[in-house]
């Protein structure tokens, strides 16, 4: 799509569009009605042809606009973009030119005309923004194509507000509209604008998300990084962000505490049975389910008590005294549970800086987690559905000559629920419903197997890899991972399958008397 830009001053939106080329759009020409307008020099620097058409002292508006149209006719133009063009256009121009757009620094129809920022501050509104609209003969009154909101904060002055509107909102909204036009998605008819594909739903075409700052943190991941935590007021799920910290005298959660505690809560929310997990740097150091909470915690801790030092403990039941006393036997940073007995609090409060968080919304964690998860990218965000997959024995495809026992099938299902919360490449060893060794975050899957085996052999207390089940979050590309597992004493494997070398991997399992099941779906976590 070929654009004509018209500006009376800097034309910063035009230059931003020229630099980003939304939808592949490019300027055929930039025109100004002021000879010394900075936009002319900036366009020339970018190799964009320019035109200056000043209005003569005796020239009427119609005559001036007719000369502008005459100049534009020398160029291939599909869309005209105004940016601080300080003239109201007449029918002479609008009927002869292609669709013409303008951006205004407020949420029209509020605060049209000059001095929009001053009007916003005088009115005392809490939200302003910008509007991209089709130009008609009125002042800022044409059909609206899109808007971008901007918060107005207490203490804002004109310059602070202008910076957010002009360089954040307008730099987002104007290119968006250009891209829509370039993709032939915009229809302007009888004063109405429609955009094909600008739909809502789980993954809407545009995301407008407003969070309120909960509090500023001491620092981020490292002491040289500033940080804050923001609250999503719409979430109904159990949350670390709005969890009550019961021992108010203890120090507040750090950035890393929030991350780790959130990962711990996500893991133990997988299970209906009493479950406990110990998390370190968002990875499980151990996880278990049992008939009672204290046993589940002891089983989880014994997977890797050395790595659990300074970790996060999460429970999916009200914490009782026996569990609390076991937790305080070694140094932990945070405990997360949906409630505590008075005796449990007495035990936990003995540790001055053990943060005790109550995420309770009932007797247990019976409210589903938020359906979407997201992460930052430079220049954007990734958004995906939460991985809620859960398997039962009937979901498994047995691919080896040997068949798993009922106990192994139960362990496979437990291991698969747990490995979803281990950073990839991930390998997890489990025995019945407790972890034995975890190999996480490796760039080689066979190294992840070796790490899990080392953890089970050297760090686990009262249990080991011999006779255990191994889970892998993705397929084995070669038989070497199975060879390593066999050396460790693994007797059963659950993995997605789907490698071009599946036959070789299955043959290796058969050679070592290992039973293997495919889930048909992987469980990457990055």
Question: What would you note in describing this structure?
Answer:
- The chain has 14 helices and 25 strands.
- Helix 8 (293-301) packs parallel to helix 9 (321-327).
- The longest helix is centred in the N-terminal third of the chain and has 25 residues, at 158-182.
- It has 526 residues and is α/β, with parallel strands linked by helices.
- The strands form 6 sheets. It has a 7-stranded mixed sheet, with helices on both faces.
- The protein has helices at 12-20, 38-45, 61-72, 91-96, 116-123, 158-182, 255-268, 293-301, 321-327, 342-348, 406-419, 445-459, 480-488, 502-511, and strands at residues 2-7, 26-32, 50-52, 79-82, 100-104, 127-134, 144-151, 186-189, 192-195, 212-216, 228-231, 244-245, 275-280, 283-289, 311-315, 332-337, 355-358, 372-377, 380-385, 397-398, 427-431, 434-439, 469-472, 492-495, 515-518.
- Its EC number is 2.1.2.2.
- Residues 6-178 form the Formyl transferase N-terminal domain.
- This is phosphoribosylglycinamide formyltransferase 1.
Task: Record the SSE blueprint.
Blueprint: E1 2-7, H1 12-20, E2 26-32, H2 38-45, E3 50-52, H3 61-72, E4 79-82, H4 91-96, E5 100-104, H5 116-123, E6 127-134, E7 144-151, H6 158-182, E8 186-189, E9 192-195, E10 212-216, E11 228-231, E12 244-245, H7 255-268, E13 275-280, E14 283-289, H8 293-301, E15 311-315, H9 321-327, E16 332-337, H10 342-348, E17 355-358, E18 372-377, E19 380-385, E20 397-398, H11 406-419, E21 427-431, E22 434-439, H12 445-459, E23 469-472, H13 480-488, E24 492-495, H14 502-511, E25 515-518
Parallel strand pairs: 1-2, 1-4, 2-3, 4-5, 15-16, 16-17, 23-24, 24-25
Antiparallel strand pairs: 5-6, 6-7, 8-9, 10-11, 12-17, 13-14, 13-15, 18-19, 20-25, 21-22, 21-23
Helix pairs in contact: 1-6, 8-9, 9-10, 12-13
């Amino acid at each position: 799509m070929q654009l004509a830009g018209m500006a009376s001053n800097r034309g910063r939106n035009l230059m931003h569009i020229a630099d980003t080329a939304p939808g592949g759009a490019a300027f055929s020409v930039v025109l100004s009605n002021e000879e010394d307008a900075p936009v002319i020099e900036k366009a020339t620097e970018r190799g964009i042809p320019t035109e200056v058409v000043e209005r003569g002292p005796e020239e009427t508006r119609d005559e001036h606009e007719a000369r502008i149209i005459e100049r534009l006719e020398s160029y291939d133009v599909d869309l005209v973009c105004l940016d601080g063009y300080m003239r109201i256009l007449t029918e002479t121009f609008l009927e002869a030119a292609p669709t013409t757009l303008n951006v205004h620094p407020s949420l029209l129809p509020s605060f049209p005309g000059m001095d929009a920022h001053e009007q916003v501050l005088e009115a005392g509104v809490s939200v302003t923004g910008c509007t991209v609209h089709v130009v008609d003969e009125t002042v800022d009154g044409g059909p609206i194509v899109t808007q971008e909101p901007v918060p107005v904060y207490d203490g804002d002055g004109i310059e602070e507000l202008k910076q957010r509107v002009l360089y954040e909102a307008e730099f987002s909204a104007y290119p968006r509209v250009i891209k829509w036009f370039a993709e032939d998605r915009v229809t302007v008819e009888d004063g109405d604008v429609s955009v094909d594909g600008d739909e809502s739903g789980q993954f809407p075409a545009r995301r407008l998300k407003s969070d309120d700052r909960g509090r500023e943190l001491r620092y981020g991941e490292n002491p040289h990084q500033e940080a804050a935590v923001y609250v999503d007021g719409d979430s109904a799920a159990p949350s670390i962000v709005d969890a009550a910290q019961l021992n108010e005298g203890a120090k507040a959660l750090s950035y890393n505490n929030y991350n780790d505690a959130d990962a711990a809560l996500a893991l133990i929310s997988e299970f209906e049975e009493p479950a406990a997990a110990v998390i370190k740097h968002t990875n499980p150091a151990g996880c278990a389910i049992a008939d009672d909470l204290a046993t589940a915690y002891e089983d989880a801790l014994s997977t890797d008590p050395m790595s659990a030092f300074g970790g996060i403990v999460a429970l999916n039941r009200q914490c009782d005294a026996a569990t609390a006393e076991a937790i305080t036997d070694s140094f932990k940073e945070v405990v997360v549970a949906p409630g505590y007995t008075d005796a449990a609090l007495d035990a936990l409060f003995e540790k001055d800086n053990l943060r005790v968080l109550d995420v309770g919304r009932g007797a247990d964690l019976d409210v589903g987690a938020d359906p979407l998860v997201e992460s930052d990218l430079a220049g954007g965000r990734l958004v995906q559905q939460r991985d809620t997959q859960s398997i039962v024995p009937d979901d498994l495809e047995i691919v080896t000559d040997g068949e798993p026992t009922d106990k192994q099938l139960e362990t496979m299902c437990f291991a698969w629920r747990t490995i979803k919360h281990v950073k990839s490449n991930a390998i997890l060893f489990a025995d019945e419903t407790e972890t034995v060794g975890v190999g996480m975050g490796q760039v080689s899957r066979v190294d992840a197997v070796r790490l899990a085996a080392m953890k089970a052999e050297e760090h686990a207390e009262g249990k080991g890899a011999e006779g255990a089940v191994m889970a892998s979050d993705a397929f084995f590309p070669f038989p070497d991972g199975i060879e390593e597992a066999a050396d460790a004493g693994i007797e059963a494997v659950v993995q997605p399958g789907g490698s071009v070398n599946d036959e070789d991997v299955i043959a290796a399992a058969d050679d070592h008397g290992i039973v293997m099941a495919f889930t048909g779906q992987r469980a990457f976590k990055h």
